[in-house]
Known about the structure:
Elements: E1 10-13, E2 20-28, H1 32-39, E3 40-42, E4 53-61, E5 67-76, E6 87-94, H2 96-108, E7 112-113, H3 118-125, H4 131-142, H5 146-156, H6 159-183, H7 191-212, H8 215-223, E8 225-231, H9 237-245, E9 263-269, E10 272-278, H10 288-303, E11 306-312, H11 318-330, E12 334-340, H12 352-357, E13 361-363, H13 372-384, H14 398-415, H15 422-440, H16 446-454
Parallel strand pairs: 1-7, 8-10, 8-11, 11-12, 12-13
Antiparallel strand pairs: 1-2, 2-6, 3-4, 4-5, 5-6, 9-10
Helix pairs in contact: 4-5, 6-7, 6-15, 7-14, 14-15
Bound molecules: guanosine-5'-triphosphate and magnesium ion.
Residues 237-238, 250, 258-259 line the site of magnesium ion.
Amino acid sequence: MGYVLRxxxxxxxxxPPGVSAVGVIRVSGPDSVDVVSHIFRSHxxxxxxxxxxxxxxxxxxxxxxxxxxxxxxxxxxxxxxxTGEDVVEIHAHGNMLILRSIIELLLERGVxxxxxxxxxxxxxxxxxxxxxxxxxxxxxxxxxxxxxxxLSRELREGHLSKKIYEYSEHIKTILAWVExxxxxxxxxxxxxxxxxxxxxxxxxxxxxxxxxxxxxxGKILREGVIVSIAGKPNVGKSSLFNALLQENRAIxxxxxxxxxxxxEEYISLxxxxxxxxxxxxxxxxxxxxxxxxxxxAWKTIENAYVILLVTDATCINHDDIRLYKAIKExxxxxxxxxxxxxxxxxxxxIPTLISENIKPLIFTSAKTGLGIDKLEKELISxxxxxxxxxxxIMLSHEHQKESLLRAKKCIENCVQQKNLLPxxxxxxxxEALHALGEITGETATEELLDIIxxxxxxxx
Length: 460
Ligand SMILES: Nc1nc2c(ncn2[C@@H]2O[C@H](COP(=O)(O)OP(=O)(O)OP(=O)(O)O)[C@@H](O)[C@H]2O)c(=O)[nH]1
Ligand SMILES: [Mg+2]
């Protein structure tokens, strides 16, 4: 790794802003214990620098002797801490005024405010975790469904990196003897040995394929998707939104043009975090507020992963088809055609054009709940495919997929080598190892690390 580990002492408030029972400040670095010992007075008179780890009750005291708060201080000395450095946590009352004042005292003693993700970056640079595990920390914080949480746990426990290390070990073994052949040029690559390696490389390739096949699902489970509800006014979009949410969140009324600004809520569908958005009814208007709402509706359609195009079973017509086509022109995403208010018209006259060409076509009554479970099932199958999720290890980050694709390409180049040129084979194997190292972090560039850790929140 070519990056520099900064050895100054950093601090940040780890708990969210606002009022809470407890607020936590973390300090990490060589001076952390010393600095905190100057602003903390233990009730029992204990010196916090004595033991490797400890928990102390006492006060944070300002220079003039003024008591700022009563706190619990946790000391975790290197290497047995989150970052691998000396870490002190100050558990104070969750008042931002108190927490900021404690931070001020720390800054006065030369401590620096941590950058986003800097604690976890230090944990990575100190070898406490590899890159997949460091990234899993962020995934764990942002996970919105139990399934995305389980996915982040798998990463956190190092299951993905274990697999990547397995690939690397096999490749290193093959590379070792290819390099031996290069060192003794009079020797040719022994056919039997090459056949064995070929078999191994093909197995790795098949395994990589399987792992790559999980990347779309992994990404969806980690990041979630936007599902936008669109359609003409009064067709029942807000009613459908409420039915999927199982809550009367959006205003429903018999007057067209009820929803102006879009409304959104998170739901879990098959474990996928879905940002469900109810939008303004799409029609030609001149009234400025509704017009703005309609423009916003088109924007959410553009950003959506799936669009639920809602129509009214009692008056479905070619305007709905025109809308369908207009949406299709705007996006390549899946459009689910919903025929709503089916309780009012069990056999709606659907233009043949719809029934033949438009899939999936789903019948619902947002009012009675009819067909809502079918809609949910269809949505889950659009998001995750029809097969059960059996994989316990998934690729969930785009850069992991890119690196694995590059590694796979190199192995393919080796396998397809007709002339068995040892130099070329060694080159490809080294490149594959380099690409795999980007996933675990061994060969990740400073630039990639900056991108990854800057997406963290401050204090983590
Ligand atoms: N019978 C019946 N009525 C429904 C159904 N869905 C919605 N409605 C009624 O249709 C009217 C319009 O419903 P909304 O959910 O407000 O429709 P919308 O598409 O959000 O309308 P805008 O926000 O104005 O674009 C209301 O009176 C609802 O009670 C349904 O499935 N069956
Ligand atoms: Mg509405």
